[in-house]
Amino acid sequence: MTTDKSNRKGSNSTNTIPHGIELLHDPRLNKGTAFNDAERDMLGIRGLLPPRVSNLSTQDKRIMENFHKKTDDLEKYVHMIALQDRNETLFYRVLMDHIEEMMPIIYTPTVGKACQLYGHIFRRPRGIYISTYDRGRVAKLLENWPQKDVRVIVVTDGERILGLGDLGANGMGIPVGKLSLYTACAGVHPSLTLPVTIDVGTDNEGLLEDPLYIGIPERRHRGEEYDGLIEEFTEAVQQVFPKALIQFEDFANRNAFRLLNKYRDRISAFNDDVQGTASVTLAGLYSALRITGGELNDQKILFAGAGEAGRGIADLVVSAMSSEGLSEEEARLKCWFVDSRGLVVKSRTDLAEHKLPYAHDAEAVADLATAVKSIRPTAIVGVSGQPNVFTTEILEAMAEYNQRPMIFALSNPTSKAECSAKAAYEVTRGRAIYASGSPFDPVEFEGNRFVPGQGNNAYIFPGVGLGVIASGASRVTDEMFFSAARTLANEVLEKDLESGSIYPPLSRIRQVSKSIATAVAEVAYAQGVATNPKPASIPEYIGSQMYEPVYPSYA
Predict the structure, then answer these.
(1) Residue 163's pLDDT is what?
(2) pLDDT at residue 358 is higher than 60
(3) Rounded to an integer, what distance in angstroms lies between the CA atom of residue 295 and that of residue 302?
């Protein structure tokens, strides 16, 4: 891993740095008004900048002043992406110093709106687009990327963007946003990251009719053509960027599970919607149990939604329960699912293959409310993408069956949450242990202030990626996500729990990511999948490799 704290130029010699206007147009090297007098003379940029020299702190204030003048979150998103396009160091400095304010803009929920309108707000290309018509030359496309030492690739085919569905090539906003969080949350140097969109068309009628849509205006190509393109892409990555971790992001259920199963034992890869969501949710359950005082093996969990996120969570919960003494069969009986047609039970003949392991012997139930009353779960986990399905009736039932009901409304963006934090706290009279996928404001209820926890995958995937990079792990294993969940739960302080939050504040996310990276690297070395020499101190080594956005000196 070569993530030093500078901008990763081998030398500050002016022979290795572009001069004049070319330098000011390179976001990796540009310092804007922070170039000092000596640098301005040496690099041929005197007169191309206002005469007064600024520093990062002053530039931060200018950016935030303009940020706060924006009245619309999408405008704030465009404002920040424009900054990323002209001054990468300042972008990450602002993002890191204001992470709690910036996270909802750079990522969920605002990134969802940005993806829906990506073709309309498109200004400057970022990442690599690989279309269905690029078969046979994918490696050449990857070779066009200017950075040659890529360690993390986030790739999507845009078919299931958050809870918004098929957004085709507009889904590029997700890899771009995720990789920004790799840097801001875990210190992975931005030059080591590459966003990729696989454009095989879209079945979104609105996009097909939109003249400003940036992708192929055709219906999705599927079958052998699709699989062949994905296979060529993964092989090309191994050829061009052999040390790269691939994170699959926002693939539809029909492809997410089979692609994960196909590649997880062949290359260094994981699916964040399956494994990252699972890990952050398991961490939330562990934290919640610190409040209730119960044991994981005593819980009964009902999932609203039976897609990739729900299945991933259930599988990791089963692994955790099995590690604590239950058989796999006993653990599976603790996890129940409700899909669009009702409770997932063995008597149903319409179940997709990924649902079968959780089809239990029980009476068929047509709706979620009846399922809650039948199963009497201790926790309900919303991964349905359907807003407000945790109705007052359901919340009241959960409060009747549990002194401290666990209510996890995890669907993104905020508009898709199964219930709001306000509804959960008010209906349960302040007894709910609540978490959401997108942020909700604190809730005042009967003299108490509740700070809802955000079960954001950003607590998991950046740290996992950093640990994989640091260890050179050739595979990403389930044990890594289990260890990440345990580590995240341990990072929650008592004062966090007292306020109702089962996750640490985002202000601590870099320390959290470092701890998770350490835990993941330790698993890699223990399992024999690490390819880098083991350092004397894993935490110290990882800390030394974490990128800090500071300007280099060119003079």
Answers:
(1) 84
(2) yes
(3) 17
Residues 273, 308: Cα–Cα separation, whole Å? 7
- pLDDT for 16 equals 79
**pLDDT tens by residue, 469-527:** 999 999 999 999 999 999 999 999 999 999 999 999 999 999 999 999 999 999 999 99
Determine the pLDDT at residue 144: 98
- Residue 489 has which token pair? 């739960």
E strand spans, 32-98: none
Last residue of a domain, one of 399, 430, 455: 455
Q: Which residues contact 272 (CB under 8 A, 6 or more apart)?
A: 178, 247, 248, 249, 457, 460, 461
What tokens were used for 368? Answer: 């979620």
Domain end call among 267, 293, 320: 267
Residue 15 pLDDT level (bands cut at 50, 70, 90): low
The catalytic residue positions are 107, 178
> Domain residues for 373?
275-455
Q: Which residue has better confidence, 2 or 260?
A: 260
In this structure, what are the phi and psi dihedrals at residue 420, rounded to the nearest 5 degrees? -85, 160
Query: Would you say residue 40 has pLDDT above 80?
Result: yes
Measured between alpha carbons, how far is residue 247 from residues 2, 145, 195 in Å? 20, 18, 10
Is 51 exposed, middle or buried (CB count within 10 Å of its CB: 0-12, 13-18, 19+)?
exposed
Number of domains within the chain: 4
Strand ranges of the sheet holding 342-343, from the earlier edge strand across to the other edge: 342-343, 335-339, 301-304, 379-382, 406-409, 433-436, 453-454
Residue type, 316: L
Beta-sheet strands, E only, within 157-241:
193-199
What is the three-state SS of 267-314? CCEEEHHHHHHHHHHHHHHHHHHHHHCCCHHHCCEEEECCCHHHHHHH
Give, rounded to a whole angstrom, the gap between the first and last alpha carbons of the chain: 27
Which pTM does this prediction carry?
0.93
Longest dimension (CA), the chain: 79
Asked if residue 475 and residue 379 are part of one domain, the reply reads no
Q: Is pLDDT at 203 greater than 70 in this prediction?
A: yes
Q: Are residues 370 and 313 in the same domain?
A: yes
